[in-house]
TrEMBL record:
Keywords: ATP-binding, Ligase, Magnesium, Metal-binding, Nucleotide-binding, Tricarboxylic acid cycle. InterPro entries: ATP-grasp, ATP-grasp_succ-CoA_synth-type, ATP_grasp_subdomain_1, Succ-CoA_synthase_bsu_CS, SUCC_ACL_C, Succ_CoA_ligase-like_bsu, Succinyl-CoA_synth-like. ATP binds at K46, G53, R54, G55, V112, E117. Its cofactor is Mg(2+). This is Succinate--CoA ligase [ADP-forming] subunit beta. The lineage of its organism: Bacteria, Pseudomonadati, Pseudomonadota, Alphaproteobacteria, Sphingomonadales. It comes from Sphingomicrobium lutaoense. One of its GO terms (molecular function) is magnesium ion binding. Residues 9-254 form the ATP-grasp domain. The gene is sucC.
Length: 399
C-alpha cells in the first residue's frame, strides 16, 4: 500500500525526520490558505499523485512547455496560479504511463535553498532477506540515470535484524554521502529516524529523493515515497486510513473487498485459481501455449460461492478478457462445492466468453457431474496442460 508525499512526510516527522513545514490542499482556495500559514517568501506547490517524476512531468491539458508538477512560487498569486494549473488536470510522468494521473490533491510547502541533493532509501533486500539502506551523493531528479550509468555511485548498507540499526550504520551512511562533522551527525540521525519509521510501521519502502543539504548546512527531507506491507496493515489502522482508493486500479480495489488477490495484466485470458503457486503455474502454462493471462487471481483456500461470483464479475468487467480458465485444486475445499459456486456465478453474471474448467482433488467426480449437468457451455479439462490448450484454442478461434 502506498501513500501520498504529504502523508509520508507527516508520518516521518513523527519519527523525528527533518521535514519542512507544509499543508495539503484539495482546492485552489485551500492551497492559498495553506501558503498563508507558511512564512514565505518562497513556497513550493506539489501535485500529490502516487507516482514519482512529477518535477519533470507535464500536464496533458496545458500547452507544451508549461511547468511540471513541482513548482516554486514567490507570491501568493503564483501559488494560486500553480494550483489552478494543476488541480483537476492530468499529470504525465515517466512513472504514470502515458495515460497520466488526475491531480486531486496538492501539497504547499516551504521553499528551501538547496545546496546539494542526496538519495537515501530503505527497502527489503530480497537477496539477503534484510533491510537495505541505499545511499547516493547523486540524488535528485536523475537518480534512474545514475543507477544505470554510474552504479558505483550508489551504496548499499545491509542491516542485520539481530542487532538492528547500530551507530556504525549511521556513520556508513554519512560516509557514503561524503559528509563529515555536524552534517555527518545529522545524516546518522536521519537514518535512525527513518529506520524507526520503517520498523514501526511495517513499511516495505522509504525513499527520500532528494534528501537535501540547505545553504544553511541542514539536512532536510524534500520528497518522500513510503510504501507498506499490505498484509500488516491490520496492525496499523491509522495508516490503513491513509489509503487513497482513487490512486488504485478499480478492479483491484473491488477484489480486495472480497479478500481476493487480484492483479490486472495485459493479456486476454482471465484466470481464476486457488493458491498463489497454482496461479503462477497457470499463467506460465497459458504463456507456454502462446497466449497471455489477463490477470493474476488467487481466490484463496476458503473460496465460497460469494467469492467465486465476485471473482467472475471482476474478471468479466475487464473488456480485454476473451476467455476464462478456472483451475481449482480441491483440497480442504471440495470440488463439488466449487463446481456449485462456478455454476451459480456463471448463471448470475451472463457468461458470454468461453469458460474452461479444470478441477482436481476431493470429490472431483461429483464436481464434474455438476458442471456437466449445469446446462452451461462449460468446457471440462482433464489436467492443466489440457486446460491451457483448450482455452487458448477457444480464444484464438473466436478472434
Ligand atoms: P519528483 O521526485 O516527483 O519529481 P520532488 O519532490 O523530488 O518530486 O521534487 C522535484 C525537485 O524539486 C526536487 O529534486 C527539488 O530539486 C525540488 N524541490 C522539491 N521540494 C522542494 C522544496 N520544498 N524546496 C525547494 N525545492 C524543492
Ligand atoms: Mg523526488
Amino acid at each position: 500500500m502506498n501513500i501520498h508525499e504529504y502523508q509520508a512526510k507527516e508520518l516521518l516527522a513523527k519519527f523525528g525526520a527533518p521535514v519542512p513545514a507544509g499543508h495539503a490542499a484539495m482546492s485552489v482556495e485551500e492551497a492559498v490558505e495553506a501558503a498563508k500559514k507558511l512564512p514565505g517568501p518562497l513556497w513550493v506547490v506539489k501535485a500529490q499523485i502516487h507516482a514519482g517524476g512529477r518535477g519533470k512531468g507535464s500536464f496533458k491539458e496545458l500547452p507544451e512547455g508549461s511547468k511540471g508538477g513541482v513548482r516554486l512560487a514567490k507570491s501568493l498569486d503564483e501559488v494560486r496560479a500553480h494550483a489552478e494549473d494543476m488541480l483537476g488536470n492530468t499529470l504525465v510522468t515517466v512513472q504514470t504511463g502515458e495515460e497520466g494521473k488526475e491531480v486531486q490533491r496538492l501539497y504547499v510547502t516551504d521553499g528551501v535553498d538547496i545546496a546539494k541533493e542526496f538519495y537515501l532509501a530503505m527497502l527489503v533486500d530480497r537477496a539477503t532477506g534484510r533491510l537495505a539502506i541505499v545511499a547516493s551523493t547523486e540524488g535528485g531528479m536523475d537518480i534512474e540515470e545514475v543507477a544505470h550509468e554510474t552504479p558505483e555511485k550508489i551504496r548499499t548498507i545491509i542491516v542485520d535484524p539481530a542487532t538492528g540499526l547500530m551507530p556504525h550504520h549511521g556513520r556508513s551512511v554519512a560516509a557514503a554521502l561524503g559528509l563529515s562533522g555536524a552534517l555527518a551527525k545529522q545524516a546518522a540521525k536521519v537514518t535512525a529516524s527513518l529506520y524507526k519509521a520503517f520498523m514501526g510501521t511495517d513499511a516495505s519502502q522509504i525513499e527520500i529523493n532528494p534528501l537535501a543539504v540547505t545553504e544553511d548546512d541542514e539536512l532536510v527531507v524534500l520528497d518522500a515515497k513510503v510504501g507498506f506491507d499490505s498484509n500488516a496493515m491490520f496492525r496499523h489502522p491509522e495508516i490503513a486510513e491513509l489509503r487513497d482508493l482513487t490512486e488504485e486500479d478499480p478492479m483491484e480495489v473491488e477484489a480486495s473487498k472480497y479478500d481476493l488477490a487480484y492483479i490486472k495484466l495485459d493479456g486476454d485470458i482471465g484466470c481464476m485459481v486457488n493458491g498463489a503457486g497454482l496461479a503462477m503455474a497457470t499463467m506460465d502454462i497459458i504463456k507456454l501455449n502462446g497466449a497471455f493471462p489477463a490477470n493474476f487471481l488467487d481466490v484463496g483456500g476458503g473460496a465460497d460461492k460469494e467469492k467465486v461470483t465476485a471473482a467472475f464479475k471482476i474478471i468479466l468487467s475487464d473488456p480485454a478478457v476473451k476467455g476464462i480458465l478456472v483451475n481449482i485444486f480441491g483440497g480442504i475445499m471440495r470440488c463439488d462445492t466449487i463446481a456449485e459456486g462456478i455454476v451459480a456465478a456463471a448463471k448470475e453474471v451472463d457468461l458470454d466468453v468461453p469458460l474452461v474448467v479444470r478441477l482436481e482433488g476431493t470429490n472431483v467426480d461429483k464436481g464434474k457431474e455438476i458442471l456437466n449437468n449445469s446446462g452451461l457451455p462449460i468446457i471440462a479439462a482433464d489436467d492443466l496442460g489440457d486446460a491451457a490448450k483448450k482455452i487458448v484454442a477457444q480464444v484464438k478461434e473466436a478472434a
